[in-house]
Amino acid sequence: MKSFTYTLLAAMPFALFPFSLQAETAEIAIVAPEPEDPALRNTPWTEEMEADFLERAQHAIQHYSTPSGINHTLENEKSTLPIVMFNYLAGHRAHAIREMEGLDGEQQHTFGIDLYWSFTIKGQMRKYFLFHDELSEAYRERFLRAGELWTREDPRPTMELVHALRDPNPSVRAHAVRLLTAMRSQDPEELAEKATNPAAKAALLAYAESDMAGNIPGDDYEAWKDWWRFYSDRGWQVYEEVERVANPNPHPTAGIGRGPVGAQWDPGIRGGWVDARNTDNLRAMRETSVYLMAEASENEDVRLLYKQKIRRFVTDLYNVGMGEWDSETYIGHTTIPFVNLYDFAEDPEVKGMAKAALDWLTASFAWKFYRDGFAPPSKRDYGGASLVWGSDITRLAGLWFGTVNEDPRPHYDDVHAITSTYRPPMAVWHLANKNFDRPVEVLATKPVYQVFLPDNDQRPGYWETVYYGNHYYLGSTVLPGGDGDMSPFALLAENKSRGVDYVLAAPGLQYNRKEGGSQIGQHHNLVIYLSRGNKDFSWQVPKIAEFESENGIWFAKLESTWLALVPIGLEDWAEGENPRNRRLNREFDTLRMAKAKDGADLTGFAMITSDAGKQTYEAFKNSLSGSNPLQVDGETFTLTEPGGKVLEMTFNRQNDLPVVKRDGVLRDYEVFDQWKPSAPNGPIESGWKDGALTIRAGGWVFEAHIDDNGSYTWSEKQVE
After folding, report:
1. Other residues' Cβ atoms within 10 Å of the Cβ of residue 588
2. What is the mean pLDDT of residues 691-707?
3. Dist CA 606 CA 639 (whole Å)
4. What does the pLDDT average to over 321-329?
5. pLDDT at position 27, please?
6. Span 661-682, average pLDDT
7. Fewer CB within 10 A of the end CB, N or C, for the chain?
8. Cα 334 to Cα 324: distance, rounded to the nearest angstrom
9. Which residues contact 3 (CB under 8 A, 6 or more apart)?
10. How far apart are CA 501 and CA 328, in angstroms?
11. Helix/strand/coil (H, E, C) string of 513-549?
12. What number of H helices and E strands is found in the chain?
């Protein structure tokens, strides 16, 4: 295995008072692998930025300084192993190494080394490579032997190997054909007998009667894609169940598993050598870890196959984005595996792809990280994007970019960033700290969730509008139908002591869910939010807000942000109960409810937002007194800001993409851009399928490009 050059990042005084163990050193030593190629390093941070980062790192180490053990049951190593790494950094080195060398009784086929669960193997990679010289020789040999066996064949062969048929390397294409053929050449009727998912059983029997049955199309990419689509069009539980029963590399003891594909993921259910889950974050953990162990074990065929998987994911980021876009829970879990890859990969092309992924991912969450909060819209939002420090991603973002208040609960995965020399680009750091000209609006699109499936990258699934005022963030998104785990709307208003105040609104209490039949139009600081079906509306609002009502307009005064809301089909609002026990921070937030009027099919509100950077609260109120800013003509609603912008929205009964005109210009849903500022030279910009990203913030311009072969180029410079 290649030896790495390590850089001492810090050696800081540290006092520990554990219950039973004494620290073995009076200093915290933070070391990280140093990339050999200067082209893989972003612009060095200033001494002040680096010192602030290390101070936050010390806070995280202190948080996890009490010696603890590793729980090897199922995937519990995902948190307990990183915490033990923190124990090491806090000075408990012998204790930590003993824990790291503990064996997992559930993983006898890999000699007690858990290489199954995706969350676990992410930590295993840092343990093996970063602490390599501290581990005993016997343990290192055991781990490498396990890794060699684990990557001797592809531990997760899937229909997605079809993408490898377009790889420029003929050996990768040949490897993919071999595995795909092994899956497809099995008798579909016999596979149907093994399937325990009725829909998958029916799909296999339908395939047996189709013209494709018995036809093995060599390396014909389009023909293989048609075969994959035959199953994938029937849903993920169908095609993944087919992959399970047709697996040419089953688990050594559990075989193909007993199924069905669903909510359980252990080898006894899913079979296979590695966690089969297909979300972006779990795929990133799996694919980077398999790559690193194949490289260390010199299993070249599997290494090249996983290099192709990594290349495709990273190039997709720069072309269309990722399915778990801006997830308050999972974007950090997608980022950390690429920190591993950046630190430990030997192939310079793969290291470059890791840097490319990290530059894009950090820019993506820096854009919505705002003063210790994380802003919807976001996919896979479990409610964390409604609280200051409520989201997992705020912890990683806060570690890298700085905070208003100290992180009350650092994330265990922070240990990866702390022990890495990767630093986001200077422009991205300034993007996170909002050091760019405001107000500014950026229009964006996001891909469909399973963007990796055949032709799912042809058009986006979401159209987003984000506006940063002088003291607030306002964002919304639209899509053709409902979405059960996507948060569609939020306002985050600056609060000097707290960080930000959240203002969320939704039909009912579904703040982190886009209901079918609800539609939002936005133009800079103007919003119209409507829902059909006589729906009540609710708002999560800060307790500091002052409320008043004049001439049918509801006014809310926050610390430095002002709101004027015109109700549509709603009664007056009042403080309401919270029967679903949403994740309100009851010290700071309250719930306001407005009942739908009898017979009102369309309910909702129109909102104008302003702030202290534009006008006083009194001037804002006075500008709206004596006139109604909202005009209604059937199901067309026109909101006019006095002396400012005009938003016209017509409710669309055919699907949930409203007809929106912004100052008379139609919002065109056939225009695709990942991020497009409304004015030139905005803070973040990326087209659709152009492989490029530009960040402009804090007097820095970062420009990056990746081609289809994964070749990554970037530049960063200061501008006047």
Report:
1. 16
2. 98
3. 7
4. 97
5. 52
6. 96
7. C
8. 9
9. none
10. 17
11. CECCCEEEEEECCEEEEEEECCCCEEEEEECCCEEEE
12. 19, 30
- The answer, yes or no, to whether the previous bond of 217 is cis (omega within 30 of 0) is no
What's the confidence (pLDDT) of residue 30? Answer: 65
Q: State the Cα–Cα distance between residues 167 and 557, nearest whole angstrom.
A: 57
Q: How far is the CA of 417 from the CAs of 8, 272, 325, 591, in angstroms? A: 14, 30, 21, 37
Domain ranges of the chain: 6-151+322-429, 159-272, 461-671
DSSP state of 108: G
- What is residue 626's predicted lDDT score, i.e. its pLDDT? 81
Q: What is the pTM for the complete model shown?
A: 0.96
- 594 touches 571 (CB < 8 A): yes
The 3-state secondary structure of 481-500, one letter per residue = CCECCEECEEEEEEECCCEE
The closest of 599, 591, 595 to 571, measured between CA atoms, is 595
The Cα 576–Cα 285 span in angstroms is 43
Q: Are strands 684-687 and 692-697 parallel, antiparallel or unpaired?
A: antiparallel
Partner residues linked to 666 by β-bridges: 661
CA neighbor of 431 nearest in space, from 372, 368, 355:
368
Separation between Cα atoms, residue 500 and residue 208, nearest integer Å: 58
- Taking the C-alpha atoms of residue 380 and residue 327, their distance in angstroms, rounded to an integer, is 5
pLDDT, tens only, 379-414 = 999 988 889 999 999 999 999 999 999 999 999 999
User: In 198-223, which positions are buried (b, 16+ CB within 10 angstroms) versus exposed (e)?
Assistant: eebbebbbebbeeebeeeebeeeeee
Q: Is 492:385 a contact under the CB 8 Å cutoff?
A: no
CA gap 87, 93 in Å, rounded: 7
Contact (Cβ atoms closer than 8 angstroms) between residue 390 and residue 380: no
**DSSP state at residue 642:** T
CA distance 498 to 532: 36
Residue 355 near residue 37, CB atoms below 8 Å: no
The one-letter amino acid at 444 = A
> How confident is the model over 561-606, as pLDDT tens digits?
999 999 999 998 888 766 555 667 888 999 999 999 999 999 999 9
**Interhelix angle for 348-368 vs 392-401, to 10°?**
100
Contacts for 115 with CB less than 8 Å, ≥ 6 apart:
107, 121, 124, 146, 147, 150, 155, 273, 274, 289, 293
What tens digit of pLDDT does each residue of 210-237 get?
A: 999 999 999 999 999 999 999 999 999 9
Q: Please check whether residue 487 is in contact with residue 385, taking contact to mean a CB–CB distance below 8 angstroms.
A: yes
590: left (phi over 0), alpha (psi -120 to 50) or beta: beta
Round to whole Å and give the CA distance between 614 and 126. 49
Q: What residues contact residue 243 under an 8 Å CB cut-off, 6+ apart?
A: 157, 158, 159, 183, 276
Percent of the chain at pLDDT exceeding 90: 90
The answer to whether the beta carbons of residues 473 and 376 sit under 8 Å apart is no
